């Protein structure tokens, strides 16, 4: 399967946005995020597209593996084994 470079580029931007969500680089400890319209709140809300983006991209590539309507089981089991290995490790 050939890679789609535009999707990979968008995925790279989404990875950076997830890092921004988890690190909250502009968050001030004196005021909770979301109470005022400041830089931290704007960046946090802008970066919130990333998690749904990963779900949509994953679903798209998962569905592309199917040849027909009855061919759902084998690709799903293969993907579940890979995810289970990563989860256990």
Structural overview:
The structure is a single chain. The chain is built from four helices and no strands. Helix 1 runs antiparallel to helix 3. The protein has one domain (5-88). It has helices at 5-23, 39-46, 50-64, 73-88. 1% of the residues are buried. The mean pLDDT is 82. With 89 residues, the protein is mostly helical.
Tell me the domain tally. 1
How many beta-strand elements?
Answer: 0
| Individual helix count | 4
Instruction: Kindly state the percentage of residues in helix.
Output: 55-70%
Kindly provide the radius of gyration, computed on alpha-carbon positions and rounded to a whole number of angstroms: 18 Å
C-alpha geometry = elongated
The N- and C-terminal alpha carbons lie at a distance of: 27 Å
Topology:
Layout: H1 5-23, H2 39-46, H3 50-64, H4 73-88
Helix pairs in contact: 1-3
Short description:
This protein has 89 residues and is mostly helical. It is built from 4 helices and no strands.
Give the key terms.
single chain, 89 residues, mainly alpha, elongated
């Amino acid at each position: 399967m050939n890679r789609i470079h535009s999707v990979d580029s968008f995925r790279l931007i989404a990875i950076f946005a997830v890092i921004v969500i988890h690190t909250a680089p502009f968050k001030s400890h004196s005021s909770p995020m979301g109470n005022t319209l400041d830089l931290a709140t704007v960046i946090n809300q802008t970066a919130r597209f990333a998690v749904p983006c990963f779900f949509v991209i994953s679903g798209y590539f998962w569905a592309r593996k199917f040849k027909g309507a009855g061919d759902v089981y084998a690709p799903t089991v293969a993907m579940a084994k890979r995810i289970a290995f990563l989860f256990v490790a």
